User: Fold this.
Amino acid sequence: MYEQVLFKNRRAGRPATISEYRAGGGYQVLADVIKKNSRADLIDCLKESGLRGRGGAGFPTWRKWSFVRPDAPHPRYIGANTDEMEPGTYKDRVLVNTDPHLVIEGIVLAGYAIGAQKAFYFIRPTYEMDAELIEGEIRVAKEAGVLGDRILGSDFSFDIVVHRSAGRYICGEATAMVQAIMGKRAHPQKDVHMTDKGLWNKPTVVNNAETLACVPLIVKNGGAWFKGLARTPNAAGTKLYCISGKVKQPGCYELPMGIPLREILENLAGGMLPGSELKAFIPGGASTSYMPPKFLDVAMDDEGLQAVGHRFGTGAIMVFDQHSCMVAATLNLMEYFARESCGFCTPCREGFPYIRDLLWRIETGEGKEEYITMLREMAGHMQKAYCAFAPGAAEPLRGLLEYFEAEIREHISQRGCPFKEKYPPSRDLWYPPEA
Ligand SMILES: Cc1cc2nc3c(=O)[nH]c(=O)nc-3n(C[C@H](O)[C@H](O)[C@H](O)COP(=O)(O)O)c2cc1C
Ligand code: SF4
Assistant:
């Protein structure tokens, strides 16, 4: 019913082998590109395709690649990002387990386009099985001559090394990731142009694994074809949407970019669980705001969500029903973000524990009216933090204050959670404030 391009080789229970990938034309694109020696054509093709990064920021891929000047110094590097620590997001893991060679060919093509010598496949440590899978398939690709020294008999040599992250959310932020790979503390680096000075001060392009997997398909079928896969005129391609929460069939689905949530919910996720009614959803991972059901028909793409004051993020949808306590849900997320702050700048390091403590008090019956104003001020302060972590992490709080202020007030006036009969708040789940 929906055209499958990234998931064309999806099989139950196992990834596609290199032979299966090749049977569908895999690695032929790489052979053609190397034969034609057409770096500029590759970037032009991406430009026509309208591909934007799938890692959360939606930056045009062709533009990022074109920042690496032809006379830039060597060695040059690719960072393939599968850190995926954004709660709700698991698409890169599913993708790698579906068609590892699609991702590998995308990385090699990216390397060819910017004249790189090496890629780091950056992966979270809890994805150990997937790290080993990729390591195994890298060996297979080398044996097949599509990776390693003198690829397919050409003068282009390129290697991929799997690098396990230390396991913090901030390590997925591109500049922090570069620090992590170099063995330094993973602090984000503002005002650093990584395409000039990235890994070891050499040109580095960081892309999400899903972004990279789109590249062989675009080169094979043309930019216009890819653009035409989207549902909305300004978006491009298909998208791996994850859906979780109070739905009948949670999962990762490949769908046209720009499809509305209503269609995902009804056609793919099988609707809400019996007895559940939609109360809110998060459109793109924990760093995006709650949205109430009135937004069900908004196009799920960068432009569609921006037009209604929201962020698309990673396309990882979380669904809440009428029994979900939005204060508890936000407390849960703030607990995560307080723990994951890298601690480099004050608003974020001090702010998230403070926000979390206010929510804990509200949830457990110690809330006061003035906490609502304090939460609003704190959400504002998060915009002044050093990197994109804090404004993103504050998004669910913004959504709570914008759409569920009445629910916060109910907690305060009733001295506790109005949902506690169905889902009693667990004091064991969250640490109490430090007083
Ligand atoms: C806190 C934080 C965590 C991030 N984690 C990831 C991640 O796990 N994977 C990813 O691809 N991008 C992540 N990003 C976005 C990256 O900084 C970067 O924009 C992306 O990897 C670029 O690839 P793309 O252009 O293909 O999307 C994160 C950003 C922030 C602020
Ligand atoms: S906002 Fe500041 S403390 Fe938070 S992750 Fe970024 S640099 Fe670190």
The chain is about 40% helix and 10% strand. Strands lie at 77-82, 118-123, 159-164, 204-208, 238-245, 251-256, 278-282, 316-321.
